[in-house]
Amino acid sequence: MFAHGHTRSALLALSAFTYVLACTAAADETNGSSGLPAYRSNVSEVRVTFFATDENNHPLPTLTKADFAVVDNERVVRVFRSFTHSDETSLDVVVLLDLSESVAPRLRATIIDVLQLVARERSIPDDNVAVLSFGGTGGGMSGGTSGGLQPAVLCSSGCRSSDSASKLLGVKGGGTTPLFDALIFGADFIAQHRRAGVRPVLILFSDDYDTISLHSAPEALQAVLDEGALIYSVDMGKSGNQSSNQGSGSMFLRRVSDATGGRYFSFSVGSSRQDDDAAVLNAVLEDLHASYVVTYDLPSHEAGFHSLRLLPTHNLNLTFHSRNGYYYEPNGR
Amino acid sequence: MKSTLLLALVWTSISMAFAAPLGIYQHGTVVRMRMGDCMLMHRGFMNQFGPPQAAAVEESCSEYTLVADKVVYLIVGKSSNQLVPLAEVIDFRLQNKELAVRIDDARKESKFAIKEMTLRSEWERIQKHIDDRLNESSHQPVDTSIMALRSRE
User: Fold this and answer.
1) Cys bridge to A134: A71, A151, A153, A238, which one at CB 3.0-4.6 A?
2) CB contact (8 A) between residue B134 and residue A301
């Protein structure tokens, strides 16, 4: 008699974009005593969604599996089980807006950016767009922030309505900056509104400074990774002040964007706001349409975090964007 | 006759001079890659005994395990953005204690510092040992009674 145990190895960071699915079909060891042979096989697969950009930071519409290799926990993987276009075609866009004192001079312009961003792309249904905020004084908001310490939902559907627009224009900047807490709030929001086949994207407008969060930067990053959301960050500290380029301020925005497979934007002083918000949303949509999914055998069964990086095989001008790793838990341990 | 010989000699010399960089490439495969520190590149006196330099400390350089026919090289880039194309087979040559990798089938080369060199047979023996250890730990029997208890909980 054979009894087949089926064990799924699950990722802690279970997401729609990158995961390890480990299926173990094992013959019961106890049958060995009955004289029957026991067979055991392990099939573990890693699935990575990614897109590539060229030297001009434009997404590549066509790509072959010979163009890249995966570095999974330092091991170079060139043999893939499958390589296909991503079949995810719709987006859930969550805009996370910093209202704190440090961005107050640019707040009005940024809110207009956000309104244009929300109104611009009609291919994204109104229900799939939400605007959240953090910092600020709480004036004029529903579910207002008490002194700006708690992130708030400005609108979760119907963000294109005139009511939502006037609500957004009514927010007041100031106060402290709970950036990391806000990211965790955003990740929770995404988790609560998750829909199958829809890719969550978080567009973060911030100057990158956190002054009062209860949570740490790694916790915030992990929360977003767990939800499989891409982060496109727009550095509010850069547009009006080029000197902040040299500060450590942009480090977290860059890191969180790279780690999730999204992108980081800092717009030059001369560019118009319309160009800026168009660039962000165009980038999100272009990246989605140029996304691929690659699967391969798990190269090592080391438990824990597996770092992940995609690198070119020939053209070193190509950059591959994917999340920066996943968790592997063998046999549900 | 003399002039023909002379011409042949000159032609051969010119050919050799141009072919030297292209003709002596060895072939290898990168099997591992990691980001390590760049300290190998910054071992000058001032870097060792001078004031600390934040940029040098923070920068990380890519480190590759390149498996060739007889030798396995551990090579390190000189800056954070220096990469080796991860093609199945890459061309490289040794030059002045460095390893020059041919980039994208062109004449362009990228030079890496050699951190370690190991005989391939020795390296394979060590890798087998590591893999065996990893396989042993990943195939430890799972106590199904505990799993059942957990599922009931």
Assistant:
1) A151
2) yes
CB contact under 8 A, B33 and A332: no
Instruction: Looking at the complex, report in whole angstroms how far the Cα of residue B24 sits from the nearest Cα belonging to chain A.
Output: 21
Q: For the segment A46-56, what is each residue's pLDDT rounded down to a tens digit?
A: 999 999 999 88
Q: How far is CA A264 from its chain centroid?
A: 11
Q: Rounded CA gap, A274 and A161, in Å?
A: 20
Q: Would you state the torsion angle of the CA atoms of residues A207, A213, A218, A219, taken in this order, to the nearest 10 degrees?
A: -130
Tens digit of pLDDT for each residue in A318-329? 999 999 998 888
pTM of the model: 0.72
Query: Chain A residues contacting B, CB < 8 Å?
Result: 5, 7, 29, 68-69, 71, 74-76, 78, 300-303, 309, 311-316, 330-333
Q: What is the ipTM of this complex?
A: 0.70
Which helix (H) or strand (E) segment holds residue B150: the answer is: helix B144-152
Tokens matching residue B152: 């009931």
Burial class (CB in 10 A: 0-12, 13-18, 19+), A175: buried
